[in-house]
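Revision sheet: structure tokens.
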Amino acid sequence: MNKIAGALWIWLAIATIFSSSCVMTERADKQLYTSVCKLSALGPVKSGIRVRVRAIYISDIVERTTLKDSDCPDVWADLAERRPPNEDQSVAKFEDAVRGDVVNDAELRQFILDVSGVYTRRSNQSQGTIAITNVWSFERIHGDWTKATMPK
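Predicted:
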């Protein structure tokens, strides 16, 4: 009886370790590398997933901030107003760059971004929202954003 209990305990320990490593792998794989255009085409089906997006950030700092894609200029994703609890320090660094040195500057803030975050979209919304958790890279651009070259 003790041999059976011992074997069962070892089997359960191995199963627990194996299932934990699978969960970690699944979490790592759940980040979808995509674009604003592709997210829009998915609709609300993929709401709640982690995404990594290369996009163009456009903000007037007062009323509207969006992520756009030069491949589909009529489509956008809004940025979430609530900050996620797990955001990286890179987000604050990017926000400092957006604000810049001049507070009363009326120029649009435009950046090419590579960001990770959580994409959400309700079925009654025409576009989704991204809560940025990490900014991998950014570069300020000036002029017509539709002519900006997105990094690969």
